[in-house]
Amino acid sequence: MKAIFLANNKGNVDYVYPKSIIDGIKELTDLDDKNVYTQYDITENPEKFSDVEYIFSTWSMPGGDNDDFAKYFPKAKALFYAAGSVKYFAKQYLDKGIKLFSAYAANAVPVAEFSLAQILLANKGYYRAVRSELTDGYEKAAEISKAHVGNYGAKVGIIGVGMIGRKVIELLSPFKVDILVYDVFLSDEEAKSMGVKKASLEELFSECDVISNHLANVPATVGIIKGELFSMMKPNATFINTGRGAQVDEEGMLSVLAKREDISAVLDVTIDEPPAKDSGFYKLKNVFLTPHIAGSQGCEVSRMAEYMLDEFKRFLSGEPTQYEITKEKLAKMA
Q: What is the pLDDT of residue 138?
């Protein structure tokens, strides 16, 4: 069984796939582990890849949905993508009947952990207190922190109960917090089994001490978090976004934040990354930016490769797979 590594940035494969995972793939296939092939390699020598059955990749996977790059792999059975979103290239492979598997669940783990940390810190007033101590002094910072609710008995709003949102809810389970969720696909039965309460966006923003966004980035969610929702926020409440910037009416959000210094926005994602240098994100003391770091990085990236090796083993043995991306699932994914 011939297998290859495929990525336009060869360094990404070195970063994501540790030697132990590469050795695991080699035990099961005729993997050419000395080369990571790029789009250029394939198009220059297409005959060399006509017998490839399995493709392993990660960030910088070649071919967009408007391309027909998958045609170079007429015998390919499956593609294993050791990263999260497959939106930009998935359709062409699915159209060719090539099964697609993604490590989106592995990437969900660090995002959920990052979100949990932000939620707990936000309810302690950490973000505003740190910035206030630098500009206003210790006493003012302590006053700001004490105005926040803390975590015991706090209300947490989760927008989007997909893989990441569910993981955040799971991680919150040791803490005595009430969880409200907004997700049009979540049934009442599921919500009850998870111990959460379904609510509208208006209820989340008006009742919760912290609201964390985990919606999939699909056309239906673009701009869904409107500016007027921020005006409904409780005193000292915090909005956290590790989903996508496109889901937020950023102009409306900044307008409200400029008028209400008591509420905060903690943003790992924005529409433009990075925001323009003259953006209001840099001018407001109650906006806190991080450079899209919630996902897998450092040692965490190896988890994605491990998930794909395990999935490959299940696929070969005929066991039920866990992370296949179908066209139906793709339509709901970020």
A: 97
Beta strands in the chain (DSSP E): 2-6, 30-37, 54-57, 78-81, 99-102, 155-159, 178-182, 197-198, 210-213, 238-241, 264-267, 287-289
The residue ranges of the chain whose pLDDT is under 70 are 334
Q: What is the pTM of this model?
A: 0.90
Q: Any residues with CB less than 8 A from the CB of 262 and at least 6 apart, and which?
A: 147, 235, 236, 286
Given phi > 0 = left and psi -120 to 50 = alpha, else beta, which region is 60? left
In this prediction, residue 216 carries a pLDDT of 86
> Which CATH superfamily is 107-289 part of?
NAD(P)-binding Rossmann-like Domain (3.40.50.720)
- For 329, counting Cβ atoms within 10 Å of its Cβ (0-12 exposed, 13-18 middle, 19+ buried), the class is middle
pLDDT tens by residue, 165-210: 999 999 999 999 999 999 999 999 999 999 999 999 999 999 999 9
Beta strands at 155-159 and 178-182: parallel, antiparallel or unpaired? parallel
Q: In whole angstroms, what is the distance from residue 23 CA to residue 17 CA?
A: 10
- Residue 217's pLDDT is what? 85
Where do you find CATH 3.40.50.720 in the chain? 2-102+297-330, 107-289
pLDDT at 277: 94
Dihedral-angle region of residue 114 (phi above 0 means left; psi in -120 to 50 means alpha; beta otherwise): alpha
Cα 292 to Cα 275: distance, rounded to the nearest angstrom: 12
pLDDT digits 0-9 by tens, 95-108: 999 999 999 999 99
Q: What CATH topology corresponds to 2-102+297-330?
A: Rossmann fold (3.40.50)
Q: Report the alpha-carbon distance of residue 133 to residue 65 in Å, rounded.
A: 49
Q: Which two tokens stand for residue 54?
A: 């399995």
